[in-house]
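Sample pair:
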Amino acid sequence: MAVDYADGRDSTTLLISMLMKVSVFFMLAVLVFSLLFSSCDRPKDGTWIQLFNGKDLTGWTPKIVGYEAGDNFANTFRVEDGMIKVRYDGYDSLRDRFGHLFYEDELSNYKLRVEYRIVGEQCPGAPGWAYKNSGIMLHGQSPESMSLNQDFPTSIEVQLLGSDSLVQRTNMNVCTPGTNVMINGELILDHCINSSSAFFYGEDWVTAEVEVRGNEVIYHILNGDTVMQYQKPQLDERDATYAKLIEINGGDKMLSKGTISLQSEGHPIDFRKVELKILE
């Protein structure tokens, strides 16, 4: 039996109204929780994303001089002990077979951070300048666009360098295979420019980070300290790859995006972390 209330509603009407309010509240709660959990599943701008899964080279493509893209000659790039390792036990001599391991996506505005160590002995036949020498390539061409015997991708190279009693040099210098950069408004045509870092001895782990802002500016950060910056990365008109790559780049010689790759230059190196933060 329905009961009449002072405001004119009966008990049945009041019950229906209450149930509708509870139902609306429940649906809103479900919607909010769904949005929260779904957003947690997606990588966001400003969060670090692991580019290396610690198990295999999924998402990465090797390109070694004299071999097609995807051919990992002599298992040069391998995963052992949860690390990307560059090794030469399958080489009798390096014979200028430099290699690069390319990540699958092109990138423009980002931070890239690696933890690395240079270890062991240099591969027989490797050039003297490649002793305790490796690198990270930025704003690079794709591995598929490289010629079969091309030694380095046209790119900006962040050098990873070690020192010992035989050689001392700063770390995270910049080199420019097929490219140029500007520093303090001046176009720099030198192939390599030294950073302001200290020397790094031994086989300790080192944290190397780069901040890349498209075509505006690139910073090198070594164990938390900024040791180099430069602007306006661009294709070099003097290089043999210029005509091909400026066409691929839509007629613009300025580089605002490109591949990243880890280098094989003749000295063993380990990477235990490779992570990316997308910037707006």
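The first strand starts at residue 48 and ends at 50.
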